[in-house]
User: What shape does this take?
Amino acid sequence: MNSTAAQAWVAGLYDAYVTTTADHAFFLAEVCAAGGPILELMAGTGRLSLPLAEAGADLTCVDLSGPMLDRLRAKLAAKGLHADVVEADIRELALPRRDFALAILPFQSFAELLTPEDQLAALARVAHHLAPDGRFICTLHNPVLRARTIDGQLRLLGSFPLPDRAATLLLWSTQQLLPDGVTVRAAQLYEIYDRDGRLSEKRRLDVRFRLVGRAELEALARSVGFRVVALCGDYDRSPIADERSPCLIWTLAR
Assistant: This one.
């Protein structure tokens, strides 16, 4: 089971602590420029899907977690929005249409594919679904910076209100680099406190992700027929700086 499928265990809590909008403007601009149907991969509960749908995108959302997608469907319905929502493993993706102008994989989720073989399979399926001039935007952690935060220490990531439960979520995490030097094993610990400050529930989510280097991703992409159109280090489109850039944002074309 990869991290996306494992998130089903905390689907009801996910929106409380995953709230960033840092990439919204970037992807809205890319979607508008694409001028055609959009394929969003590992869409989750719709953190990015909703603003794209609100902007009028012809959107197909794919994720492996049924409970995450149930929340996405409910949010779309509540806002009177439409997107095609598909539960599928992107390594085996087989949609009827092959005319997507743009595929996107946001929030560094490609890293949840833990082997080069899995990553290669996913890249091949993405390429299969793109129009002849289609593009694919894939976001990844900057492995140079990300590796520095992995030290095995237990850390509090934050305290988050749960208004529907009149409760508060405390989210803790510990991360460890495995002996292969590229796979990270992380444990996320969820503590829910009621309005009186009493601990009412605890959950644990074990996830893994891979630190993917620039040369590795480029080689995999080229092997399935992609070429690199652009590579930037943040959502302001700044160039890559290994010591400063928070992420790697790849734009690939067939």
In short: Residues 66-79 form the longest helix (14 residues). The helical segments are 3-6, 11-17, 24-34, 49-54, 66-79, 116-129, 143-148, 214-223. The chain has eight helices and eleven strands.
